Amino acid sequence: MKINKIKLFAIAVALFGITSIATAQKSYALDAKSTFSVAGTSTLHDWEMKSASGTGTANFSIANSKLTEIESLSVTLLAESVKSEKKSMDKVAYETLKTDKNKNFKYVLKSAEKVNETTWELTGTYTIAGVSKVYKTTVKTTVTKDGLNMQGSNKITFTDFGMKSPTAMLGTIKTGQDLTIKFNLNFNL
Asked: What does the pLDDT look like over 98-110, one tens digit per residue?
């Protein structure tokens, strides 16, 4: 009888240990398939600049194929990796972003709140052109076999980050003040 109790206790401890491991927080790295973009308008046309060269890490808890906690998240993007289809536009953008002094865009999570099974509200600090601002971002999440996909966007303005809207052709072409940052992040083990 005493041996059965010991076996039962050992099984309970083993199951508890497996459950703890299954819900343990793990460190994930940003995958090369992640994409970033910034879009805006001008008096000539709408425009978009894209990049796929960010780096980052995150600590998540995933249990039963569901995201249960976001402990940390940090993403860095080389500012001059963001490109349009026109080199002249890229040059004006890099001058506006002051990339000679501010080589990277950064995002660092401050807090995360679960809205529902696939939606989270993140509060984090964006650093662009050397200026840091806190934004709330609603993201959609999908747990994959390798990790987690996270998609979202933010509306910002040039003035939020101490920049002036770029102009071209002696001021005849003007960029709109509003910008949209979009991201599609893949974090893998």
From this structure: 999 999 999 999 9
